[in-house]
Amino acid sequence: MRLHPLAIGLALTVGTVLGGIIGAIVSVPVAAVVKTAVPHLLGHPPGRPGPARTPTAGPRVRSAAPPVPGPPVRGAERTRDAVSQATAWP
C-alpha cells in the first residue's frame, strides 16, 4: 500500500492527539484502509482511474514490426539491379 508521506504525517498527528501512543500506532493502518475503502465504495476501485482522471490519448508511436510486403512496384526490378551493380565489388 502506498501512502503519501504527508498523509502518513497527518494520520500520525491526528492519531497521537486523539489516542496517544496507541492512536499513533493504529492511525497509519486505518489511513491505508480508508484510502482503499473510500474509492471502492464510490465505485472506483484502486488502480483504475475514475471518470475525472481518464488519461488522454498520447502521441501515436509507430510499430517496430516490419512492413507487410505488398504487390511489386512497377520498375522496382530495374532499381534493384542498378543498386546491385553500383554496390558490387569490381
Characterization of this structure:
By secondary structure, this protein is mostly helical. It is built from two helices and no strands. The N and C termini lie far apart (69 Å). The model has no long low-confidence stretch (mean pLDDT 76).
- How many beta-strand runs? 0
- Largest β sheet strand count, sense and barrel closure: none
How large, in whole angstroms, is the Cα Rg?
A: 31 Å
In terms of per-residue confidence, which ranges show pLDDT below 50 for 5 or more consecutive residues?
none
Protein name: AI-2E family transporter
Region (Disordered): 40-90
Organism: Pseudonocardia asaccharolytica DSM 44247 = NBRC 16224
Biased composition (Low complexity): 40-65
Q: Which features characterize this protein?
A:
90 residues, 54% helix, AI-2E family transporter, mainly alpha, 2 helices, rod-shaped
